[in-house]
UniProtKB/TrEMBL annotation:
Domain of life according to the entry: Bacteria
Main location: membrane
Keyword Disulfide bond listed: no
Subcellular localization, as worded in the UniProt entry: Membrane
Annotated InterPro entries: NnrU_dom
Name of the featured protein: Putative membrane protein
Protein topology in the membrane: Multi-pass membrane protein
Transmembrane parts of this sequence: 6-24, 36-56, 76-95, 102-121, 127-144, 164-185
Domain (NnrU) ranges: 3-189
Length: 194
């Protein structure tokens, strides 16, 4: 579990610079340049995520169960992941109503993903892993919304084609991931059990 926690600290720490050290981040970008900073940032983030995932996989072999979630919650998780994937896609599709309304749909996607997986997993490592992502997404979303209000940020208005593309794209991604990829990423089938 130590490897997982180190990975979480690295990954979520790098993604928390906007919360805890925006002035330091801005100085680094000014001193080193935007592209070199982004390259180092990406490499550190990828390393942290890799450590967290490998550590999570190792944790599952020596899991400390805290509670045994009802089987029905697994179906709820699969259902909750549909809006999570739609919100994830909304972060990248231009001119959709979800991004116009929420401003930061990817963080909303992370919140739903983490909360849903907390419902269906009762091991200590699961609670640390998904709880860390949930806490991070909540804090960062609040911080970015405050920043948006302070700067008067207005997101482009949503249009129906962008919104339809977002919903269809998110639904397709959800189906493909749940049906074929979840087993490879998490070691369990999304529809057959968590």
């Amino acid at each position: 579990m130590t490897l997982m926690i180190i990975g979480l600290l690295i990954f979520l720490g790098t993604h928390s610079l906007n919360i805890f050290a925006p002035a330091w981040r801005d100085r680094q970008v000014a001193q080193r340049g935007a592209i070199p900073f982004k390259i180092v940032y990406a490499l550190i983030s990828i390393a942290g995520l890799w450590l967290a995932i490998v550590g999570y996989g190792e944790m599952r072999t020596t899991a400390v169960p805290l509670w045994n979630p009802p089987v029905g919650l697994r179906h709820l998780v699969a259902l909750l992941m549909l809006p999570s994937f739609i919100l994830l896609v909304a972060a990248y599709v231009p001119a959709n109503h979800l991004k116009a309304r929420l401003g930061h749909p990817m963080l909303m996607a992370v919140k739903i993903w983490a909360f849903a997986h907390l419902l269906a997993n009762g091991r200590l490592g699961d609670i640390i892993f998904f709880g860390a992502f949930l806490a991070w997404a909540v804090v960062l979303y609040i911080r970015l919304k405050k920043k948006d209000r302070a700067l008067g940020t207005v997101y482009p208005a949503g249009r129906m084609p962008g919104t339809v593309a977002t919903v269809i794209g998110g639904a397709i991604l959800w189906f493909v991931f749940a049906s074929y990829l979840h087993i490879y990423v998490a070691g369990v089938s999304a529809f057959g059990g968590m």
